[in-house]
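U., I forgot to send this yesterday:
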Amino acid sequence: MTAANPWSKFFWNDWENDPALRLCSLAAQGLWMRLLCLAAKSNPTGFIAVAGRPCSSTDIARLSGVPEQEVESLLGELSRNGVFSRDAQNRIYSRRMVRDNRKRAKLRQNGAKGGQTSFLNGKGIFASSEQTDEQQTEQEREPQKPESRVHKPESIPPVGPPTANVRAEVKPLAGDWILPNDWRETALSRGWARTAVDQQAVRFKQYFSFGKGSGIKRSSKGWRQSWLNWLDREIKINPDAANFGRGDAENAPGIIEASLPENVQAQLKIPYAPNDLFFRRWLAPCSFDFDAGVVIAPTRFHADFLASQYADTVRRAFGREMKIIVKDKGAPHGQTQKT
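Result:
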């Protein structure tokens, strides 16, 4: 910011979001702003120097009107947090300002080689009309090449309407999405247990249909790849994720398929989708005591899975809190169960 260049760009977001600067006190931040004003007018630009000589704490105290002892304390705070750097001559300088000044000088140098040179030399689009006429006359004097006697055959246009590059349709994951069978078979071929696949399908749907990923749009091929990436990520987070429920295979509710009784459908507060995984495999095998507000799962595994993965869905389905318990093996269907 010299007399020839009295202003410069200042990115407020960079100042506000600089973690090193935010660690400093307001007094230290204020001193650094005063030093930046001095650095912008220095030669070279970006250095806290006067006439090329580095400014000491005494000089800075005089220039900023702050006691020298306080200046030393604030400079130490700025230095500890890495706000500024020092060169071989122990001069304080702003890394950003020095970098921007070099870029500006480079752009100025490149600009001098371009349009300005053409303008000064009268070349290109800046050429006078007389020069343009002379160039056209010279072109007319040049001998013309005779036309070829061999004619190239005309290209035959394709029959039918022109083909266009059709992009695959992208759309969000549907709220009634069900894991396709080929996706399931791919997961099983990779060593995932069937119940573990069901668990991940629930989480995948909750995240991309109702959670943070609900706004994401992808093609059918893209969603399939997202599913595979999801499984790979889960394995990295939890190496045992693929074995979830493998020990309960004989009692796994994931292999049970049934329709929801009509009296239960009448209690629903959300649309009933018979093919939905939640209704078909996890809610239909249960019995219900609506007076007590209880969902009775057939096995401990079933109850634990509903409570951990579908608690919110059950609450939304019936419009109230429902306690999920497991049925006693010796108790008749629908009677009091143990928790």
